[in-house]
Amino acid sequence: MKIVAIDFETANYSNLSICSVGIAIFENNQLADTYYSLVRPPKGYGWFRPDWITECHGISHTDVYNAPEFPAIAPELFTRLAAADVVVAHNAQFDMHVLRSTSAHFNLPCPAFDYLCTLTLGRRVWPELKSHSLDALAAHIGHQFDHHHAQADAGAAGWILLAMMIQKGISTPCDLAAAVGVPMGRLDIGGEKLA
């Protein structure tokens, strides 16, 4: 079972303003590989506002000035996503909208894949927690990470998913989703169904 966790950071509220992407690949319940890249948003979408966004992830215009644009990293990203048995993200609706919007902007065909949201799953698996934010769930499972760094956030989402599977005594993400009543999301070229 190959689980690919993904996270995007954006420069502003636009879905087209990706400024970094991180991937964590889990195989046999272990972290097997990671990928990270800064990304230069396309012209007209690269303003870093509001200020709290930059303060949150620490990325500024000068950091991405010489970074590749999305089309340059898309082949690497799409290859990893297409090889996944399931893709996972925390607050997956955000990441799937960003991926789909940016791919469409550059006229790049997104690979089809199934995905799960650790935010939605966390609410079902640990309903007693006061917060189901990524940092709250990571703290709950004892995972320390550099929050709002795309690669670290992707890794945290993967570890949280594995912890939920252990908590429920379930061996696959799909079985976990079925057990707690969370529908699997699907992103494909023909349309997107959000969980």
Quick summary:
With 195 residues, the chain is an alpha/beta fold. The protein has helices spanning 51-57, 61-64, 70-82, 92-105, 118-125, 134-141, 150-168, 173-180; strands spanning 2-10, 18-27, 30-38, 86-89, 113-117, 185-188, 191-193.
Tell me about this structure.
The chain is α/β, with parallel strands linked by helices and 195 residues long. It has one domain: Nucleotidyltransferase, domain 5. It is 42% helix and 23% strand. It contains eight helices and seven strands. It has a seven-stranded mixed β-sheet, with helices on both faces. Helix 4 links the parallel strand 4 (86-89) and strand 5. Helix 5 runs parallel beside helix 7 and helix 6 crosses helix 7 (150-168). The longest helix is centred in the C-terminal third of the chain and has 19 residues, at 150-168. The chain is globular and about 45 Å long. It starts with a strand and ends with a strand. The model is unreliable at 191-195 (pLDDT under 50).
